[in-house]
Write a structure and sequence with these properties.
single chain, 70 residues, alpha+beta, 3-stranded mixed sheet, 3 helices, 3 strands, 27% helix, elongated
Length: 70
């Protein structure tokens, strides 16, 4: 089951997003939103958590074997 409570929905056009991205970013924290473009669409989704550096990831248990190289 998805952690999102609301369905993915059309939110704005690319031009509207480029002019004022804050509303779409705020909405994406609650549920994925669609930003329409002339030749397709973008699906904007927020994922909680912080990015880790490759160094931190590599040092975590089980990620690299002894003969692996970065």
């Amino acid at each position: 089951m998805s952690k999102y409570r609301l369905p993915i929905r059309d939110f704005c056009t690319r031009e509207e997003f480029e002019a004022n991205p804050a509303p779409a970013l705020d909405a994406a924290m609650k549920a994925p939103v669609v930003i329409s473009a002339s030749n397709g669409r973008f699906v904007l989704r927020f994922e909680e958590g912080l990015k880790r550096s490759v160094k931190d990831w590599a040092l975590s248990p089980g990620q690299l074997e002894d003969d692996d190289r970065l």
